[in-house]
């Protein structure tokens, strides 16, 4: 059978499906179109978000790269003494500032700066603290104050490497008399986190651009008027933050100046007279209550605190046994000792417990009825026979005042001391004043949980026991005596700007004129009579001083023991006190002097007072055409030496 050859089959033919291809193409085109529309929508939305919704935000950020509003701190008010001498000033100073937002690597910049100029660890620590405080963006923060010309030059040469670093001029507080006014003026120092924590929005605004604030003394109590009002300026900057030009400005308002009652010359004399002793001098103008001298020794240099004190320097001051940071004038509490006797003698006359004819037998001690304890007079053996009020003040007879206290009792004594300002803050216009203590039955029951004993009244009458007073309080007390019962509020500031600070009468103790005369006559004889306890300072006096010496025990002495300074440590020896006013017949100036552990008011404190009085009257003579006529008092005894 013949073979049938394999004949190849024809290939199948495929035809294009145009409809299907069109459908696929249309779907892809639609998807692509939707994607394009979505992307366009996203772009439009973003454009709208940038140009409409957040337009103001981004405009502000953009402008900050070109135009900034910078606060301009005001110039702090100056402080003058009564004679117009500048005692707190502002000195121009160059400081190194850093703007964190302009610095790419802060740590590297700080390290590099330390290779150029001396920068202490304390300064870097203070800068880091300032960074953590609330502040405006792009606000410069000071790193170093008081740059020298060489340091400024070193920074200028390397300016191209220091983006965000600048040298700025600013006024820095300076106290030209250093330690002399430290405890009255106080000081300014850098604003701390604690300060900022107490700031409200208004204070944050007022302190914008400022780096310091009053910390103690008058700088603190008059901070609001010394500060002034912050200004502002609109500046154009380049990409590196350098100011190109000032577009607009609102000048700051400088703080108001303070004019004080304090007299530079009196401060100098009082400080020099105290010498190396610890103590205080406070002098008050009788008519106004103005404090013309207020010295606390030892003192310190307030300039150390202005731009930041090192830990070592502060620790040395803070731990010193001499306590230089302690303002003894308003914070020191001392037993006033016999300086209270004229005031209590006046109270005894006014209450009728004694008269000028009252005499007390003085064997050198006093005993209460049915009590064997002897309350000793400072003079063993007594002051001879019987003693009246005049002799008791002149010779400081304790026995007389023990008897007076036994008859008056604390209920009659307390109102007298309270009227003269004891036991309460004087109202002096600096902070941190202490109120002292003028005891009463209610006070002892509340504080000691004990009743009041007659012996407590005896101790109070000689300024011991529970009695404590600051030098300012004692100065107010003697000024009130000099003013015949009119107690003035003590003031350090005489005027703010061109506005005088009004004097203020706090209280009026009413007493008979003849009783004032008795006390004034006795106090005058303390200095000018042959038996006066302060007769040692009357040589060459051309005016009369009315005074009272005082010696205050620091530690108690047992009943049958005698005070022996050689057996008592220096810090436990008696304090020396002296209160006085002059001229006795027309008082101008009242003062108190306290010498810690000085032992005798007559020999240690009284000579200091004499120097202050002499300086005061010399100043008055310079200020007037002729010195005042100082005639002897009609109540002065025959033993007065002119």
| Mean pLDDT rating | 87
Helix content: 25-40%
Q: How many domain regions? A: 2
Give the biggest beta sheet. 7 strands, mixed
- Uncertain runs are 626-642
Q: Determine the oligomeric state from the structure.
A: single chain
CATH topology of the largest domain, what is it called?
A: Beta-lactamase
Strand portion: 15-25%
Taking the alpha carbons of the first and last residues, their distance comes to 181 Å
**Which geometry do the CA atoms define?**
elongated
- What radius of gyration results from the CA coordinates? 39 Å
| Architecture per CATH nomenclature, i.e. the level-2 architecture of the largest domain | 3-Layer(aba) Sandwich
**Number of DSSP helical runs:** 23
- Tally of extended strands? 23
The first-level CATH class of the largest domain is given as Alpha Beta
CATH superfamily of the largest domain: DD-peptidase/beta-lactamase superfamily
Structural class: alpha+beta
